[in-house]
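CHAIN AND CONFORMATION:

***
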Amino acid sequence: MKTTDEGPGTVHRAVLPAVMLSLATVVSAVASLNTAVPSIARDTHAGLTELAWIIDAYALAFAALLLLGGAIGDRYGRRRALATGLVVFAAGSAAAALASDPGWLIAMRAVLGVGAALVMPATLSTITSTFPAAQRTRAVGAWAGVAGASAIFGLLVSGTLLEAWSWRSVFWMNVVLAVIALVATLAVVPESADPDAPRLDLAGAVITVAGLGAGVYSIIEAPTEGWGSARTLLGLAAALVILAGFVLWELKRPNPLLDPRLFRIRAFSAGALTITLQFFGFFGFVFIILQYLQLVKGHSALVGALSLVPMALTMMPFARGVAPRLAAKLGPRRVITAGLVLVAVAMVIFSLLDEQSTYWLLLAGLIPFGAGMGLAMTPSTASITDALPPEKQGVGSAMNDLARELGGALGIAVLGSILQSAYRANLDVGNLPGPAAEQAKTSLAVAMRLGPQAADQARAAFSDGVQSAFLTASVALAVTAVVVAALYRAPRHSAAEPAGRDAVLQGGKTAPTPTGDSR
């Protein structure tokens, strides 16, 4: 391990807040722009498909390049990766703030995702390489807390900015945060790298981007092209073929970006699947509900963001206190399954929302949603890391980050597309002239400009889309709960578990069972 000349393990008290600020900057950007979606639609005339891309371009680039970003930091220096990522993030944000059309905004959001993919893995690696073992656990706990709270922080801050300024202020906020984080990084963060880090798997990274890009593109464009169209079906088929090629490529690599054999460890697979579907539901929910609150219910951006605070206030104590205690007593299987079921129930409640619904109905879903997320998040993360030996903890951390961002990208794409499909199918445009009818189908924000009757019909159609999207999410989460419970219910051969895990890590054929209590 290469560190500064002060020696490995030197603790710099200012390092933790510096990397926390960098982490908060990139994580908050995943959710912060959701509050601005209605105003972006009104200002740029973006349709629902373009709005989904504006939000998802960041999450997709972030997820697809996360493993490569971590490998770059390990090989060439984490401080250097942090600084470079923050510069890219700031430059992309400034360019996005000056955008006047949806296409440019989508492109710049993807640039932000590239910067974030360099920043996020470098923050955790900097902590583990800088802090001695005695202080590392607390530092990593602080990292996890900031990573979890930053999404809500981003929503609240962006909602506050939108009370006084336009959606462009959200990007200028990114610039300010990134510049402050960059100055702090250059001032106090020591350089560290792994001189024995393997060569970068650039081919694997390109295959990942191509596969995920083809899949997300086909899903987002499906409402316009048709779910049964040749373009959609061929795009989804191509994505599956490319991602299968990625698996084959990684199996042949001596040092892969992500070893597919790890998914034969049941606890690892269960934890990764849980994190993916949790954030599939979470980011898909945030993307849809903020549009519902602002466009259907007529709330301001700040009121919309504040409406979601009960979810965060429920999630935090369950994640930090309740879930660890219950997992220690009952085992991760029961706690994670219960958490996923609670989130699925919350989605059913959200599917009842319409134009006349009161806040009490939303609140009735937010409480089990936050509790379920908190219950499932902590033990599923522990399942990923505990399934691997100490020397593979970097892989566990990367998988946790990848599952989170990939789940978010898919949630926005899938649930956003279902929303748009139902909106277009249920919107009655018979009383509108041809051009106006086509405009109304693009988004609710555009339809609301076409007169009171069109606005009322569009709100009703959007509510139908909300119900379809959340019911779909509920089914997906319920199925995941069943699958995760089955993955944890492994044969009880505890004496063979370490050997099975080691065989997988060494490329063997042994089918392992999860570590720890699988109750």
Notes: The chain has a mean pLDDT of 79. The CA atoms of residues 127 and 139 lie 7 Å apart.
